[in-house]
Each structure stands twice: as C-alpha cells, then as structure tokens.
C-alpha cells in the first residue's frame, strides 16, 4: 500500500525535470536546523546537523548525482591507472578560500593526509587504504593506494573528505584553533553569525568560482527545539524549508497538504539511512537463528512504513538496501507471517524467556515504532519488555552488549565496503561502540567474502562476491532489516532547485533560487 | 458534628470526592471493560471520538483504543501519585520529626540538608534523576519522592516544635517514656491531620510531575499513563486534538479532585479554622 | 548596618550551599550511563577507537574521578567553569549568553504571578460569600490543576496558529534587524505567551494563599479595632488586612523561586525560548558534564538570590521582625 503522500512524491520526481526555468537571483532563505550543531568545522565534526549547515560552507573534490555518479567540484577531472591503484585529480585553478587565499593542491594534501588522518574517523576508513598523497604541481594531486579499493571514488563528498585551509590550520592545535568559530571554506556561502540557541546565518560568497552561483543572498538556520513549534514556524511562514528530521513524521501529511508546499525524498542517496534491529547473537533466545527468523516474520514492516513513516521508504529485502550497489534480487523475502514465526518458535522450543527491547531515543516515531514491534512480537508469543534509555544510556547499553533487541539506523555511504560490511565483519567486534558489529555475528565465509569484495577490481568481480554473501546473511539473519528510511524535505514550491545531488540535503542551497 | 458531616459541609470537597471515586472506579473497572492490552493496535489510526462503535474516544496514532488507554492510565497515574507520596512521606516525616523534636544542632544540620534540596530546582533534579536511573516506574516514583519530601519535613518539623513542650509530652517524659515512644505515640498522632492534608495535595502534584516527565520523553515505555498519552500525542496535537485532550482533562480532574478533597479534609480535621474561614 | 550584616551572613551560607551542590551534582552526573565522548562519536555516525580515545583524553575523562573533581572545584573557585564538550566554547560564555533570557522570562512570570495572584486573591477575599469570589477561586484551582506544558501547547495553537496574534516561539524576530524600542517591543511580544503560561500556575498558588491569609488576618483584633473606629471597609482591606496578609505570601514566593526555574525548562522547550532551562535539558541529554554542572550552579545561585531578596522584602514589610531569628 502506498499512501497519497508517497504517490505525490513520485509524481513530483517525474515532473520536476520537465521544467527548465530561468533562475532568479536574490532573496534569503529561512530554514531550520535540528538539533543545534556542536560546531561548524566540517571534518572536525561529522554529525548530521553540522553536515547540513557546513555543507554549504565547505566543499569536497567531487559532488555526486542522485544516482551517485561522481561530478566535478573542486576537482575538474580525474583519472585512474589500469591497476586501479593510482588516482590523479586535476583541481580548478580559480578557487579561493573565503579569506581570499588561493586553494591549491597543498590544501588537499594537508586536508587528507594530516587533518583527516588525525580527526576524522569516516575519512580514516578510506585513508587506511591510501599509501601516499602527493601534490605533483599546484593543481594536481595523486593518491596511491595499497590495493584497489572499490569505494574510493565515492568518498570525496564534502562531509567525508572536507577540504580545509592549510594556511589556517597547519601547525596549530586543530580543535583549539580560533578560526573554528569562524569557519573558512571554499563553498558558495560564507559563515556570518551564530546566535546560539536562536539562529545560524550564512551569506552569499560573492567571489564564488562557479558563474552566477549561488543565487541566494543568504541562509538563516533557525534553531527551535520543539517539534510542534517547528511545524508552526513553517505554517506561519517564518521558514520556507523543513529539512529531514525537523518535524515529527505524524506532522508531515498535514504540512504537505498546505498551499504552495512541495516535498522530496531525494538528497539522501549517498547516506541511504537503513533502520535495523540489533539482535544479540551471543546469548539468550536471540542467539538462535530460528528465533531471529521468527522475529523477521513476526514484524509487520509494511504497517510501520505506512503508519509511522507515512508510506515513505522501502521495506528491504535483506542486508543490502535497494540503493546499495550490488544488491542481490533473488533472495527469499521475509514477509509478515505470524504463523511461520510461531512455527519457528515452537521448533526451537522457545520457553517464554523475557527479551529486552531498546528503542532508539531519537524522537516520537522511533518510540512508537518500538511499541508496534513489541506488540507484533507479543502476538506471536515472544515475551518482550521495553527498556527506555536516553542517548547516553543507549550508547552505553549497546557498547556493553547489554541488550537482546535494539533499534538503530546506519548510513550506507554509497558502497557496501563502507556502509554495510562493517555490521557483519567479525574483525569489527569490539566493546565500547554502538556502531560496529554490535550483534556479535561471526562467520568466516562472510568475513572472507566481504574482504575480497572490498579490494576486487573491477566491479563485475565484486558483484559475484557480494551476491554470495547476501545469501548467507539472508539465512542467518544476524540483525533484523526494518526499513530503508525515506527522509522527506518539505519546502515551498517556489524554492527551486533545492535538491540537486546525492547528498542534496547538505549541499543543496548552492543551486537553489527563489521564484518570487 | 462527626467527621464526614464536617467534610460534606464543604460542597467543593464533596464534588471532589465524587470525581475521585469515579476515577478510582475507572481504574478498577479497566481490566474488566477493556481486558485487552491498551497497547494493542486494534483499529485504523486517528479515528475521531464518537464515530466508531467501541471507540468512544477514538484511536491514537497507531490505532490503539484511547478509551482503553485512559482507563488503564487511571490506575497507573493514581499508583504513581500514591506510591511516590508514600515514599516522600517516609523520607520527610522522620527527618522533620527528628529535627523538630531534638532541635539544636540536629535541627540545624537536617534543615540545611532540606534547604539544600530546595535550592536545586525541583523539576531539574527530577529530570536528572530519571535520566540517571533511566526511565521506569521505579525511577520515576523515586525521583518524584526525592524532590517532594522537603515541604513534608518542614511541616512536620514545625508541628513538632510547637508540640514538644506541651504538657502531655512533658508528662510522658516524666513517666520515663523513651524519645522514640514519645515521638511515635504522643506527638506524631497529633500532627497527622496536616500531614494528611498535605499528602492529598502531594498526590496531585506527583501526577502533574509524572505527566511533565513523560512530556519530555522520560516516561516508562511499558505502562500506559496519562502523561505518556499526552507526551505521545503532543506531536499530533494539531490533527488529533482528542489524543491529548482527554488525558489532559483526566489529569486536570484528578488533580482538581485531590485538591478539593484536601481542602475538605482540612476543614474536617481542623474544625476551628474551617468555621473562621467560611 | 543590620541589613549589611544579614546579607553577608546569608551570602556566606550561600557559598557553602553552592559548594555542596557542586560536589553533589558532580557525583550525580557521573552516575548517568554513557559519557560525552561516546555520544559525540555516535552523533558523527562513524567512529573508531582512536576517535573515542582522543575525545576522552581531551575532556580529561581518562583521569581518576577525584582528580576530575579537584580540577573542577578549583576551576569554579576561580570562576572557570570549563569548556562545553559539545559546543566547544567556555561554559561561562554559554550560560551568560542564555541567562538574561531566563531572567527575563522567570522575572516577568514571577512579578506577573505575584501581582495578579495578590489582586485576584484579595478580590476573592472581599467577595468571600459571593459567586464572583467563588468563580475566582474555581479558576485558580483549574489553573493550578492544569499541566503547564498542556497550557503552553494550547496557547500556541490558539493564539499563534488560529488567531495569529502572537509569535509562537523564539525571543525575537530573526532577520528583522530591529533596534532600540522596536526591538524591545518585539521581544515583549515574544515574551507574552511563555511568561503568561509560566505565571498561571504560580498565580493560582498566590491567589489561594492571599485569600486564605487575608481571611485569617480579618479575624485579628486590630481589624476589629479599625472597624470599631469606623474606618471605611476598603481602607481596612487595603491598609490593615492586605498588609498583614502579604508576609506569608512573600515567604512562599521565595520558596517558589526554585520551582519557577524548574518550570522554565518546560516553557522554554515549548516556546523555543533561548534560556538556560532548555540548555540544561540539552546538556543532560548530551552528557555535557561541565555545562550541566555550570547550569546547576547558576540556577541554584538564582534560587538563593531570590530567597535573599524575599527575605529582605519580608523584613522591610514587617519591621517587627528584627533579629528575632
């Protein structure tokens, strides 16, 4: 079942490309950032609100279409050697930092080799495959890899591989640098003012290197801590754009019915947030494969999507989302089948032992979802007790493996080697983090396949390996696959060209213009 | 005039008592009228009240029966109110009694301790306590008790101070009764009426506190309380007013009833004051 | 002279209480599950052991607890409240930036509730057996029994969404670039809803208290004397009864100050008022220890200042209390 909203979005997709209007320059956009970001120096801080605001201040070497095809940004062109190990990037020559200094290959080497190696875990995941980074001239950078690395070219998005100014950070204590309060990037907007608790203001970069861009004079990011108040801010016209996560899902249908209101699910292709249910593979009933399969059959995932997520998003087939590369379509799906779940529980001799369920403390929708899953599981005879935690408690409980079932969602980062394998590799089992192989799944064959696939070259070889691994995972159900989340951006229809890339929610305002 | 007649003279108190009894009745009847779990998703979500048979108050965001939630919630809210008040009394009464009875240094130390708790904003402390213990019925009850005992201690202390030099206390001391006996047998019974009045108000405040905690997302996820219902409905307050309206009214009526009953008790237990007042 | 000595002794006591609060809260917060490093790492969506180690070391969380406590307490003694882990700015800056908003909100609500409460209470006392008096008391009781956040939500729906009279949230209109009187007017408009909702509950308390103590004062001998002298009823009400009835209300008001700061957490959340109540809740969720401790320190200090002020007012209002205590 698709709700009217989902249909409306589908229609908007097809319609949007049909019109090519002449952009108008001018105007300031008011939008919301939730929660207030801890800081704006991308590369030093990688959380979602920082990415969303600072993605307009900073840039990466490349940009990606909504199909995750690489596009030129700070790099004009690039090439790879035949063995897949040497990547050469040619930079634009007309780029300056917001303080007027020229942007050069030295900045790239400093950002990647020094700044990110020290501060940025998501960049480190890629950099560990990089042997050397050299500037061969002022506008050419060469990356040499130890072995080919499948997702290498997908990693140059602004939030992951941010370009930071060498002349400001070199030789300083990065985190204590005064400039952190006034971020300097190369992007279409410059930092202007941050009135904590109230607003973050960016202004147009008059010297931006792409002709005519940006069209907007500035962006005001309002900070409003209460969900209902955020909805009111849109309704009474104070803000024009509601980025994902700013209003509760239950408010979305009502808001989208307002006049002059459009909505898009695009701009998350790079992240492809994937909701999962951790199941503790180590002990208790969840250690039994049949129990985990029973959970999959017991859950009504379509209900969750239609009622809790307004029909947005997609029920996944298995471990690889539909946006993921190398998805295997031939897997046996886990449909909602309570009888099958009861059979499996009987077969394993489940005795009604209590299992503890940890909801994700990220707001009402997640709480409601946990309530629905608890009810689904109770109906097939599983004795569930929900234990509420806040973010700190949730981190600690998962890091200590002190749970039976727990909600989470993870980003896919455009490639299985970055976003998917981390959940299943036994080398990724380590206490203290809620983001690794928390379920404690160990399978030698799976480890082998994931490792080979990450460095196989070219893509056809990777595909065969990934297809095999998906079959094993489908049978073992190390975790529950809940939903590929659809995060809608709600905006006034006269805000044009808002989402133009696969990370569009974070770098979208560059192309946006107001038809007023 | 007997106790009830004095109580009934206060019309408001009578109304309060009737409301309160009705709410208690709701709590008792809940499992009989709605034997199914109030968490069950039984109908289409967002059914407005009075439109579908069997769902007089409509359904919530996930198609759960609001009427069932309200009835089961009565039990939870009353329980939280009563238990946390009992715990608060268990802390406040002994502290206040000891401080008031012994006076001097003991009193000083205990009162500084009490003041200390009154200096930290109540609600802030409650939030921190629930966050530390993680939300559950137990942690909520404890947190409410911990922030609400100081007024009890102050009240009991004041009563003890005024009573400790009364003749009958001196007499008890002369016949050699121990301090513990004097506190428990002689003075405490005479302080009961103001304590009862205060307790009835504390139950009301506890219900309000629980709802405020739930509103901030610090409720127990396994029990359906009124506070939970409002907290869960606040994001949809615009499209489904009834979801927060009914539990809101339920809280209002309960707190109102408890206050009216408290006033009635006050009148009934302190006949002299009541006459002056009216 | 007397007041000076009194203030000094009260301040001395206050310092001790504040010191105790710091230590108490320090250990309290440590008991909360999870730590700021893990939360910040979690927000980043990706993390490795190296990242966690860097943060823990940077925050000084790798040190033994007593070292952390000593560092903190000796810092506070020098009015250094440390850095906010999450925001990476000095705690003092964050709090001082937010404090005026909270002072404005709670101060307005305090005055509003006290004035309206006393007026309503004395009206109710003067009309003790009339329906209008009962109506006032019934209203007060309803305000008292209604959850604060519920009133706030309803007020937003009614006055901002349907009637569009008042702004729904925030402290000033962003981007309007107002200055001087226009700015003050703008802030005032934003202040109406949060201050009124916060004041309602306390107003109800003061109304009931005023009425009760006025009725009690009316029974006193000096009132009878005044009546016997043939003074006008309104004069007696105002000069004799109200004046005497005020004392317990002032005491109560002082005690309520802490409650009001607590209530501000809810009000500031619903109305996006950029005060320290909201900051506190966020800091707690983030396990931003330094920030949370700093806010506790300031809000406790606020309560103490309120208490001292009411104490002084009490003494001014009733010259009979000299150094009785």
From TrEMBL, chain A:
Q: What is the protein named?
A: ABC transporter substrate-binding protein
**Annotated Solute-binding protein family domain residues:** 69-427
> Could you tell me the superkingdom of the organism this chain comes from?
Bacteria
Q: Which Gene3D superfamilies match?
A: Dipeptide-binding Protein, Domain 3, Periplasmic binding protein-like II
Q: Which UniProt keywords apply?
A: Signal
* Signal peptide (from-to): 1-20
What PANTHER family does the entry give? D,D-DIPEPTIDE-BINDING PERIPLASMIC PROTEIN DDPA-RELATED, PERIPLASMIC BINDING COMPONENT OF ABC TRANSPORTER
Q: Which family does it belong to?
A: Belongs to the bacterial solute-binding protein 5 family.
UniProtKB/TrEMBL annotation, chain B:
> Which SUPFAM superfamilies has this protein been placed in?
MetI-like (SSF161098)
| A Pfam match | OppC_N
Tell me which domain of life the UniProt entry assigns to the organism this sequence originates from. Bacteria
**Membrane-topology annotation of the record:** Multi-pass membrane protein
Record-given protein name: ABC transporter permease
Where in this chain does the record put each ABC transmembrane type-1 domain?
74-262
Q: Lineage of the source organism? A: Bacteria, Pseudomonadati, Pseudomonadota, Gammaproteobacteria, Oceanospirillales
Look up and give the organism this protein is from: Halomonas gemina
Query: Which stretches are transmembrane?
Result: 12-34, 74-102, 123-147, 195-219, 240-261
- UniProt cross-references to Gene3D superfamilies, sorted A to Z: MetI-like
From TrEMBL, chain C:
Task: Name the membrane topology term.
Answer: Multi-pass membrane protein
Mind listing the UniProt keywords for this protein, alphabetically? Cell membrane, Membrane, Transmembrane, Transmembrane helix, Transport
Transmembrane domains' residue ranges: 12-32, 103-126, 138-163, 183-206, 246-271, 291-314
Cellular location(s): Cell membrane
Enumerate the Gene3D superfamilies for this protein.
MetI-like
Q: Where is the ABC transmembrane type-1 domain?
A: 99-314
Pfam families given in the database record:
BPD_transp_1 (PF00528), BPD_transp_1_N (PF19300)
Q: Which family does it belong to?
A: Belongs to the binding-protein-dependent transport system permease family.
Quick one: where is this thing mainly located? Answer: membrane
Protein name as annotated: ABC transporter permease
PROSITE patterns, per database record: ABC_TM1
